[in-house]
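Sequence, structure tokens passed on for absentees:
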Amino acid sequence: MRQPSCRRIVWVAFTKFCTFPFPDVLLKFFGLTTRVRRDAWKEKITLFILYILITAFFCTWLEFVTTLFCDPPKTFEFGDVYSNSSHYSSVHGQVFDWKKYGNSTEMTTQANLYPHLDLSPMFPTFMLLKRPNGQSYYEDSVIENCINGFNRSTQADNWLKYLLNHDSGYHFENDQLISCPIPGRRNITGAPCFYSQDDIHQFNQYPKKGAISFDKNYIYNNCTLMPHKGLSYGRAYVILDNKVLDVTDYLQAATDIVKVAKGSYSRAFALDRMFLPLDLTIMLFINLGTDITKLFYKEIPNPTVYKECLNTLFYHGVVDGNTDEGCAHINVALWITVGCFLLYFLIKMHLTSLTRFGFIQRFLFKSNSNRLVMSSFVPYTLLFIPFYSESSETIRQTLDSLARTNYPDNRKLLFFVCDGIVKSQSDTKDNYLCVLDALGYSSTKDPELRAYISLGQGSRRINYARVYAGFCESGRNRVPFIMVVKVGSQKEEYSYKRAPGNRGKRDSMLIALSFLERCLDLAHHRINPLDFELYNQCYNLLGIDPRLFKYMLVTDADIQVQGDVVHRLVARLEADPKMLAISGHVRPANPEENLVTMLQIFPVFITYYSALAYEACLGGLTTLNGGFVMYRLWNADPIHSKWPKVSDEIVESLKRKPQKSATMISSSSGTSSSSEESVSPHRRRQPDTVSYYSLQPNRSVQPIGIHPTVLRGFAAPRPDTLHMENILLLGEEQYFSLVLLRSHPNHKFGFEPEAIAYATLPTHFFALQGFQIRNLRALLHIQIEFQHVAKHLGVMYWLTSFTKFIDTIFSMPIIVYLYIAFVRYFLYKDMAYAIIACSFMGLIGLHIFYLTLHRQFKYVMWFILYCLFGVPLFHVYFPLLAVWCSDYSYWWYDVWPTEQYGFRSRLHGIIDDPSHDQDQKEEQGMLVNRMRLIDFEREEAEKNALREKEQAEMLDAKFNGFTGYVGFNKTDVVSFPPAVQIRQHHQRFGSGGSSQSNPFASALDSPLDDDVYNKEDTSMFSTGTTESSTIQQQQDIDRDSCHYSLSNSILSLEPYHIDEELAEGRNAPVHSKIAFYYS
């Protein structure tokens, strides 16, 4: 068991501190019986608490902390302003210091005469209702909307006329206001009036000290009475939105005093002088001294219009504690915080939208596809397709799309991996049988089971697989294929709870990658039985050297590609040797199937185009999604390019004496000939030379994607913590891109928007939910893991990864806050929220503009649907569910339902069953022998020779003519095979001009060479004493020439004719039926 790191120790201690109310005894009672599961649950709770705390801190910052940075208007207590020692005075709720201005103007001179008093009567705002004769409109726009907007100008004129004629404090004569009430003596006139436009302009030039503030209790107790007989001066105030309104004059002139009894009076509303609506006037009248905000917005129609009108005519101050009043209008800290996210979204959207223009794409994503067409060398490419529960129709579409790509058939190989035997709900046969039918495989005989060490735990460590190979015909294309079917052990075959052989996508990728890595140095690397079978089928049946594959396209089984995809991706990789891998553009294949697929259109666009294009514009991608990616397997090493290649050793056939340990191969013919025979010039492209097949490493080749460091980093980690479980079990292909970048820090990833593929979207909501929470959990932990790698990659990688990590963390709370900002704006019309709402509405409008500019009018409808329903679903509901389900990573939810599970989760393929924990002793005895290629061929030679001997004995048991077989001794069997004749690639590939060189080299052993493989070769066959000298001679020859034997498992010294159908795989047998022995 590996020792935990310091970070791990601190983290575990912190999780125990956060979950101290839940001891292990209590967790055992609720079903968490193992320590691993209890630790994972504690880590999940800790992560959830941290996420809640981060969200709470973010909301606290936006709601409260930002108010500390805004500058609310300064307020003055009314008691301080109106005290005898004060030199301040107030005008309509605003405090002024007139003393500092002296007697420079008439206004300041008069104001200085009345310190510590309310000067509002000298500046009558009701004169805004005064219109010149013959003018139908009001100068003030607020008054115009309030009065003329509701046809109440007549009532306003009557109200103003009644007030000026009945208020003793005002002297109105010749259509002019001559004098106003003296401050402090409301009913006595004598003070000048300042209400003209010039006076208003001059008044606005004087700065205000701040608003006068009133205590709510003071208003409630002292400002509820209107002037009447016996009370010459009264005050009638109401509170609206924390603002104090003095409605004394309005109610005084809009009502009449009526005597109801002797000594008892009341007020009646004068409808002809009521320029405000009756319900509003009644509300003001019966709620004097109270806060009418809730009633006002609930019962008054057009509240915004009348609110502005009341503030313009009757504003008299604010209430105490109104510190957020200024922040509701100007909140700079809030704008900066939200503006950072807005700027990030804006830059990301702009870069994404600009990359969709053709001339921008040609500049950013330079492709040399035309140069690749003109080139005589087209790299070999492996098309890797793992599948599990996808329907047969979907896989058939994927197969046809890959087979019919315009890439040469002789330069591509379809490599299918069936990740366990299961049956889809829409099929009647097992998954691999459906694929074999689609491939046109007609043999009824199952290949031999081949063992290999998988990523499974415990009893699932050893897995078995079958290898099928042949040629797939689709349209005019005839493409070679190999399919590996994981069938599992015998215990799994009879298990009804889990699919036999299932080990996950990471295990499937490692089958192909580790096989290609071991092929780099077949002379020294040890291979397992599955690797040997893969090499045997690939080289001897299909006629392709697996070491020639330079690129590997990994695509999911539910993704269909366009015809030029492989060509474009290979061209980009060929143009830039520093590019590790390149991702294509995935679009939805069924966008309008139902509402569930419509909601996924823009999330797919964001994931497979927007995020990739944005990072590509910044200089490099951080991670790849893995569903549609081409990887670079190896690269030509320019340092050793001047060295001679071992596989290119040329020997003049006419000058060198032929040896029995090596044979020549023709350049274009499908028939092999001995080195002693003459070669016809018309049958050979190079009649004077022959090349020998070498298993030695080629030092002019540098492994990239199959570098041992990469494979160790991809295969070695174990899902023993919550963090690693979410990475290795849910983000398998994304983790591979991280390992690639960590192993090759001077390289980068790329994006090709013109390489288009179409993915079949989930049509069931629960399938979508399982798929999204799986991706979100993997994305979060991959981003955490990438932070440890980014610091070694440069500033741009760190900046990109950090912003991506912040986006992952804060996208949910910022989306929620934006919804709150929109609601607040529509309810209260605060300017602070209005700016935020308008900014993001502008962002949405800009996105619609780009869609319209690209003439994607249907996407506008889908974008609106996404904004209304998809945003809360994908950015609020799914993230919360993903965090809560983060300890369920060992449960896998299949997007494609199976007949056994349907739309239900299942254990991940590498997780061992709890009932198999006691089988460790049995597991220790289960070893997979790994041998070198020549040893496997020796073993196969003896098996086949022994098989032929047994067949001959059965047929000729009573025939005495072949005494050699009657007295057969085991020592007569070939114990060490000679180097054999290797045929050239079949002529249907047109490979006469292709090189037979070996471009691979590696001095390192397999990354999976763990304890299971540490056993020395126990399968070496002992030789007889009569053969010892021959064996020693053969070993010396092999050691000197470095040319090892390869065959179709049956070795030969003499030339033999390879049947045309057998060579192309159209005949059923894989192995040849010819065997020769040393004499």
Confidence is low (pLDDT under 50) at residues 641-691, 918-925, 964-1079. The radius of gyration is 43 Å.
